[in-house]
Design brief:
The protein is mainly α. It has six helices and four strands, in the order H-E-E-E-E-H-H-H-H-H. It has two domains: 123 residues, no CATH class; 79 residues. The protein is elongated and about 70 Å long. The structure holds zinc ion.
Length: 211
């Protein structure tokens, strides 16, 4: 008898814009790794489980990062880079987002895209749900833009505004230390009548009351 694992739990997963919010059932399983099949293992304990049980049924369903049965797809090892052992299959994998702590699925199709189309090293792991990843990328771009503005010898007033708004975003996201609030206040002192001043003041008040 096959134990039932994740598919019957009807868990909420953070939706992925391309792949949805539930496991994508293919009906394919790789039950005998001795047949030359290899699935990318994600943690030492998972690897141990795999080795010991020789099938995913040995993995504790509560273990975060576990494979979802019946979701395997066939991989193309010749297109993968960065690992001595190539994966022959990908599974949908249940993971917990590092940022929002919600469950999400690192889809088998997405892994194929990462490791075969984009040629990310097979060791590259997915640690954030799709929406946190998007937010994280947005913040990276914002920080890069902030750094450019910050390094400039002179700035226009609109660049000062842009920099101040970016600073607020980065403080709110926890990337900048709250001490940066003083520099926002300094901007307000320099430009008390700018059209963005009211917005900046409101956001600053919200940060300082929650801090
Ligand atoms: Zn998340």
């Amino acid at each position: 008898m096959k134990p039932t694992l994740i598919p019957n739990r009807r868990t909420y997963y953070v939706p992925h814009p391309r792949y949805g919010s539930q496991p994508r059932i293919t009906g394919i399983n790789v039950e005998n790794l001795k047949d030359g099949a290899y699935i990318r293992c994600w943690t030492a304990s998972e690897l141990e489980s795999w080795t010991r049980k020789n099938s995913f049924y040995g993995i504790d369903p509560a273990h975060i990062g576990c494979l979802i049965p019946d979701t395997a797809i066939v991989a193309d090892p010749s297109r993968q880079v960065g690992s001595s052992v190539a994966s022959t299959h990908y599974y949908d994998i249940e993971k917990k987002c590092r940022d929002c702590r919600q469950l999400f699925i690192f889809y088998a199709e997405e892994q194929r895209y990462w490791y075969e189309e984009l040629q990310f090293p097979v060791d590259a792991d997915c640690i954030r749900c799709a929406s946190c990843r998007k937010r994280s990328q947005m913040l990276d771009r914002l920080k890069a833009r902030y750094d450019v503005l910050s390094a400039a010898e002179t700035r226009t007033v609109s660049e000062e505004v842009e920099m101040t708004l970016a600073r607020l975003d980065l403080i709110e996201a926890g990337i900048f230390h709250p001490q940066q609030i003083e520099r926002v206040r300094a901007f307000l002192n320099r430009h008390p009548d700018h059209e963005q001043t009211a917005t900046i003041r409101t956001r600053l008040a919200a940060i300082t009351t929650t801090a």
